[in-house]
Design a protein that fits this description.
The structure holds 2 protein chains of 2 kinds. By secondary structure, chain A is of the alpha/beta class. Helices cover about 45% and strands about 20% of the residues of chain A. Chain A has a single domain, classed as Rossmann fold (3-Layer(aba) Sandwich), CATH 3.40.50.2300. In chain B, strand 7 and strand 8 form a beta hairpin. Classes of the chains: A alpha/beta, B alpha+beta.
Chain lengths: ~130, ~190
């Protein structure tokens, strides 16, 4: 089972991504939600303290308040326990510059909003 | 736009970018049919009374301004229901969040088109959604809005952009608030 962390300031997008995840062939376990990078780091730390298994996948928006997705990504990649977590960016940011920046920081994939369920499924199947 | 300000991007280009982005969001995320009506330019000072929902998002960088979506509360509920595969009969947190995200996707994709066209990065703010009865919105500066109306069945959606060149050459794209001051009168 793969536990997933969804990081997006839109509850609507978090709900849609949860629904899409459950439609894939990937065995999805817990789905944790965070509204920004700060909440995401807190959720990962909480899981660590509770000695719960680390999530196996992170779906992350870029434009968010408090801590955006690229800052979160760089913090994850600098952390010894979290650097290997696959992070898929899901964002309206579609410029080549932004995509390359995310990939350069270590993103495992990039899906541009608006997205279809198939696009998410294909990306996750290729990564997991 | 005054005589000293030459538009960096033409009205036709803006309309085409809005059309492409809005149709993509409706086809991909909402599954609602949508048809475009004739676009027009509106003076910011010509305040138009409105009721329903207005969602605003700021743009900054090589160009500064605001993008907005506006529609009736009924259509907002219908769009939210289509997005979340749920039924919404009144304005609530889910509907407001859905409209904010639809605005983010539409104006965000317009932003990407503009970035490709300008060869420069733009920043996008977090959307702000306002709903109510008999309120008015206008820009705090003398700018023009490019208004692109759409129809979906009996409902109308207005996607609007108020954009101008950034006079501050040292400005860097970032996480702006509203680049142009907004006024909302209730």
């Amino acid at each position: 089972m793969v536990d997933v962390l969804i990081v997006d300031d839109s509850a609507a997008i978090r709900k849609i991504l949860q629904r899409v995840l459950r439609q894939t062939d990937i065995p999805i376990g817990r789905v944790i939600e965070a509204g920004d990078g700060v909440e995401a780091l807190a959720a990962l730390k909480d899981a660590e303290i509770a000695q719960e298994p680390t999530v196996g996948l992170i779906l992350c928006d870029i434009n968010m308040p408090n801590m955006d997705g690229l800052e979160l990504l760089s913090k994850l990649k600098a952390h010894p326990d979290w650097k290997d977590l696959p992070v898929v960016m899901v964002s309206t940011e579609g410029s080549q510059t932004k995509v390359l920046e995310a990939v350069g920081l270590g993103a495992a994939g990039y899906v541009r909003k608006p997205f279809t369920a198939d696009q998410i499924k294909e990306k996750l199947t290729a990564i997991l | 736009m005054n005589e000293n300000q030459k538009p960096v991007v033409s009205t036709e280009e803006l309309v085409a970018a809005v059309k492409k982005a809005t149709e993509a969001v409706f086809a991909t995320m909402l599954g609602l049919e949508l048809s475009i009506k004739e676009a027009f330019v509106e003076k910011a000072t010509a305040v138009v009374p409105a009721s329903g929902v207005v969602s605003l998002i700021g743009l900054a960088g090589a160009m500064v301004g605001t993008g907005s979506l506006s529609c009736s509360c009924e259509f907002a509920c219908r769009m939210s229901g289509a997005l979340l595969m749920a039924e919404h009969t009144q304005m609530d947190e889910e509907v407001l969040d859905s409209i904010a995200e639809i605005t983010n996707m539409v104006i965000g994709n317009v932003k990407t088109t503009l970035e490709d066209r300008l060869g420069a990065s733009l920043g996008l703010s977090i959307p702000t959604v306002i709903f109510g009865l008999n309120f008015q919105t206008r820009s705090g500066r003398s700018q023009e809005w490019v208004v692109v109306p759409f129809a979906s069945g009996a409902d109308n959606l207005y996607v609007q952009l108020c954009l101008g060149p950034n006079k501050d050459s040292a400005a860097k794209p970032g996480r702006p608030g509203f680049a142009l001051p907004q006024v909302v009168n209730f």
